[in-house]
Amino acid sequence: MKKLAVFIAILLSNIIWACGFYPYGESVRFCFLNPAHFPYGNYASFNYSSLGFSQNDAAAPSGEENEKLWNQYCGGNIDLNDINKVLDQYTYSDIKPDPRNTFLTYLHNQKDTEAIEYLKFAKNCEYFNTWQDDPWERNESTVTVKRNNLLQKAISLAGKTVNKDIRKRYAFLALRLAYYQKDFNIINTVYSRYFNVNKTENIVDIWALYFKAIAEENKALANVYFAKVFVKCPEKRFVTWQYFYSKISEKEVLKYAGNASDRAAVLLLYGIYNPERNLENLKKIYAEDKKNEGLGFLLLREMSKLEDWIFTPYYTLFDPSTRELSYWNGDVSESKSVQQVLERSETDREYAQKVLDFIKTVDFSKVKTPEVWTVAKAELLLMTRNYSGSINEIAKLKKILPSESPIHNDLDKLKVLNIFAAQEYGNAVIPEMTKGIILKNKTDKQFIFALGRELEYLGNTDDAALLYVSLEGSSRDWSSVFYKSVKNRNKTYGDFFSDYFDYFDAVYTPAQLKSFINKAQNLSTTGDSFYRNYHQLKPAQINMLYDLLGTKYIRENELQSALDIFSQLGEGYFDAQYNLWQREGKEYDTWAGKVFYRNPFYHLKYTPDFMEEKEKIKLSKITITQKLIEYIRRADDPKEKDQDYYYFLVANCYYNMTQYGNAWMMKRYALSSSGNFSIRDDNEEFNAVNKAKFYYGKALANAKTQKFKALCLRMQGRCENYRLDYEQDKNVDYLVQSDNYEEARLQKNRYYKDLEHHYKDEYSDLMSGCDFFTSYFKARR
User: Which of 67-80 are b and which e, b meaning 16 or more Cβ less than 10 Å from the residue's Cβ?
Assistant: First the structure.
């Protein structure tokens, strides 16, 4: 059943998001230490990523070791560029005396015919040292014959050549040709004659071992050979990783590793294959070979994992980029996911402490790249909330790093994160000492967002908002920061944010939003230098935030506060925002989006008009709020002879300010056909239509005629249906609703039961459709 639940959850997720984007993987992963800033460019293909591994050409300096070996052969006085030209650019006919090329000039001056003839032979082999390039295999037999001839000649020339270096090169060409000829027997024979797995003295030996590993039948032993190649030959790392038999147990492979260096090499490859916690592997490699270059890389890779496992959920509330919800406990309940990701982040902080404990035992003077270990220690102290300890480590490291090192900026960002996180709740600010670093990195979205999140967690929503607003239009890269709210619940539509306005709309309280607007305006007038140089809100942004504040007051039914804000903005603002309200017609409901095209007091969506529109007003948030306040006042006045009428108008307006009405834009900035569950405080009212039902009830209580009473009760029943739908959607999956749901809902609707019981003559009219609404409303008096 648990597997079935996971399958259903995945299926539903695919249904929901099949036509839209949902952040995952690299789009949500947080990373503060840039791997490119560390001395592991040759390992770049294996940097931690939710996308897995991929060939990185920059990680493999092709031919560099071979060029150095040829230079050594020539006494060390040859321009490496000249060697590169001969090896990579010259053809067979170019291998001749060339005064412009020091490499060829040296060989000819030395009358080194063996080396010259080798170069010519190697050029002849180039085409055949690859897989067939003919997709139709029309020339397969011809190529096979020619390659076999070259293979036999290479073996023969290796046996005749006097110079041992050139002899090995011929033997290597034979191995390579045999590999493409798929003759592994020849590979084993030639290798055993000219090479030794325990004497890998230069790059030719390593290249030869690569082919020996491929031909080796004992896969555990082959893994040892692959590991040796991986460590010593960057350009072969990616293909070696592809050949490595990772499913063979580490213990079985280590039996064939004859020394500490080989054991460390094997452990390195297994460590790279491990996408999860790799601490024990790090400890083993450190015990075997402290100077192993890959050890530092694995530590940096482990830090990238921890950044993802700790910071991604802590700051964004998304699951880590490489871990699914089911990874933890098989629980696919969305309603618990936000709390769970925070709990998991804490679990991984405990693991970070274990990594830190290990680093404290490491002798930095014995590892190859001690600065990497120090940076890791500093960030682990941040991860484990030892902020002062982290800042101290950063200070010590910055003193010894070269001034031009890009690591300085990574450390600066870690320092600022420490300073922010170390503040007390209720007293958090943007400290003066951090402002220069923030300005320097203001286009780093993840860094700025993390600072904002720290402030928000510590109760400073004003400065958090300032940082969030500044993310708009940032140019660090094409992506945005995607994040959730702790308010997220099951079935929330659009449960993530990438825009500050949407976030404020859903999460900030009116008091928080008002406080931020006041601060933003004060900063713009006082001329705060940090604010001026960092990010100033434009007048249009301020106006939109005031619009949002008024809208939030509407949601809380604080009508006078809303009117004060809307009036402050003025009619001109709304003229610019909603300039299509004069155009009537349902086509504009969807086309114009936010346009008020029908008066919400007199017209109901998807209901034929049954009321005379006595007051025609230019529709906007100002005028609708004004009229709503006026009609409530008149309805509540005991001296008003038309109380029932005004209560009915008020009910209509509240009805229309829900997702079912024509004035939903009084409370929302967007409406979706996919569902409107949200984390906004008025979510229940927006879906369950409770206030409209209440005011239809007030109209009923003040009604004077039987028919109008029946109409009011009918409208209460309609609202109750929406409430029942809402409760059903909250508690039952929409795919498994009962076939008899409509009938069951009708039975649960007490207002329709009252209508049927107390107004039997009117029940059939009103329940058959909306055609009788006009006559029933006219019968009010």
Answer: bebbbebbeeebee
CB 325 within 8 A of CB 13: no
CB-CB contact of 659 with 687 (8 Å): yes
The answer to whether 387 touches 422, Cβ cutoff 8 Å, is: yes
Q: Extract the runs of DSSP E, i.e. beta strands, from 171-291.
A: none
pTM: 0.88
Decide which of 384, 405, 422 is a domain's last residue.
422
Distance from chain centroid for Cα 549? 30
What rounded mean pLDDT belongs to the chain? Answer: 88
**Which of 45-54, 209-218, 483-492 is least confident?**
483-492
CA pair distance 584, 588, nearest whole angstrom: 7
Considering the domain architecture, whether residues 602 and 454 belong to the same structural domain is answered as: no
Query: Which long-range contacts (C-beta less than 8 Å, at least 24 apart) are formed by 487-492?
Result: 487/679, 488/317, 488/337, 488/338, 488/679, 489/334, 489/335, 489/677, 489/679, 490/333, 490/334, 490/335, 490/730, 491/334, 491/675, 491/677, 491/729, 491/730, 492/334, 492/677, 492/678, 492/679
Q: What is the dihedral of CA 464, 468, 469, 474, to 10 degrees?
A: 140
- Pick the closest to residue 718 from 644, 769, 764, 776 (CA basis): 769
Residue from 384, 409, 403, 404 nearest 394 by CA: 409
Helices (H), 637-677: 643-656
One domain for residues 686 and 751: yes
Q: pLDDT at residue 191 above 70?
A: yes
Of 48-52, 527-531, 541-545, 745-749, where does mean pLDDT reach its minimum? 527-531
DSSP per residue, 205-222: HHHHHHHHHHH-S-HHHH
3-state DSSP call for residue 686?
helix
User: 762 lies in a domain?
Assistant: yes
> pLDDT over 90 for what percent of the chain?
73
Asked if residue 185 belongs to a domain, the reply is no
pLDDT (0 to 100) of residue 477: 42
Q: Which of 83-87, 307-311, 566-570, 613-617 has the lowest mean pLDDT?
A: 613-617
Structural domain range at position 643: 582-778
Listed residues 392, 422, 452: the one ending a domain: 422
Which DSSP category does 754 fall into? H
Q: Is 617 helix (H, G, I), strand (E, B) or coil?
A: coil
The 10 Å CB-count burial string (b at 16+, else e) for 658-695 is bbbbbbbbbbbeeeeeeebbbbbbbbebbbbbbbbbeb
Report how far residue 116's alpha carbon sits from residue 292's, in angstroms, rounded to the nearest whole number: 38
Taking CA 40 as the corner, what is the angle to CA 37 and CA 44, rounded to the nearest 5 degrees?
95
Place of tokens 């990616």: 238
List, for residues 234-275, the tens digit of each pLDDT value: 999 999 999 999 999 999 999 999 999 999 999 999 999 999
Q: What pLDDT score was predicted for residue 203?
A: 95
CB within 8 Å of 691: residues ≥ 6 apart: 557, 651, 654, 685
Is residue 101 within 8 A of residue 82, CB to CB? The reply is yes
Q: Verify that 384 and 462 share a domain, yes or no.
A: no
Please write the tens of the pLDDT for every residue from 107-120.
Answer: 999 999 999 999 99
Do 365 and 434 fall within a single domain?
no
Indicate the pLDDT class of residue 406, thresholds 50, 70 and 90: very high
Same domain (yes/no): 601, 472? no
Q: Are residues 432 and 519 in the same domain?
A: yes
312, part of any domain? yes
The domain tally of the chain equals 3
- Residue 497 pairs with which residues in a beta bridge? 483
Do 493 and 604 belong to one domain? no
Q: Is 773 domain-assigned?
A: yes
* Number of residues that this document lists for the chain: 781
pLDDT band at residue 62, thresholds of 50, 70 and 90?
A: low
431 shares a domain with 385: no
Q: What confidence score (pLDDT) does residue 735 get?
A: 43
Q: Are 56 and 45 in contact (CB under 8 A)?
A: yes
**For a pLDDT cut of 70, what percent of the chain falls above it?**
87
